[in-house]
Amino acid sequence: MTLNIAHDLANHPVQRLPIHDATELTDGGSLANIQLGEQVYTLRITRAGKLILTK
Predict the structure, then answer these.
(1) Using one digit for the tens of pLDDT, what is the confidence trace for 15-52?
(2) Closest CA to 50 of 28, 19, 22
(3) pLDDT given at position 2
(4) Any idea what the CATH number is for the domain that residue 44 is in?
(5) Which residues contact 16 (CB under 8 A, 6 or more apart)?
(6) Could you tell me how far CA 17 lies from the centroid of its own chain?
(7) How many domains does the chain have?
(8) Residue that wins the pLDDT comparison between 9 and 47
């Protein structure tokens, strides 16, 4: 079995994913809590502009 990514992309519609602005999630700061079910995760924007999501 070989992977043919170009073939797969050509034959499947592009899935549109929602886009969320991290600075809006953090209300202009650098931290936000995100809940998924019973779990709460922390989203952090680093000084280098990277995102870190921790449990």
Answers:
(1) 899 999 999 999 999 999 999 999 999 999 999 999 99
(2) 22
(3) 57
(4) 2.10.70
(5) none
(6) 10
(7) 1
(8) 47
Is residue 55 a part of any domain in this protein? yes
Q: Which residue has tokens 């079995």? A: 1
Phi, psi (degrees; rounded to nearest 5) at 11: -105, 0
Contact (CB, 8 A) for 41 and 53: yes
CA distance 22 to 20: 6
Are 30 and 44 within 8 A, CB to CB? Answer: yes
Residue 33 within a domain: yes
The two structure tokens encoding residue 23 = 């600075």
Q: Is residue 1 part of a domain?
A: no
Side chain identity at residue 37, one-letter code: G
Query: Which structural domain, as residue segments, surrounds residue 35?
Result: 20-55
Is residue 7, in this structure, part of any structural domain at all?
A: no
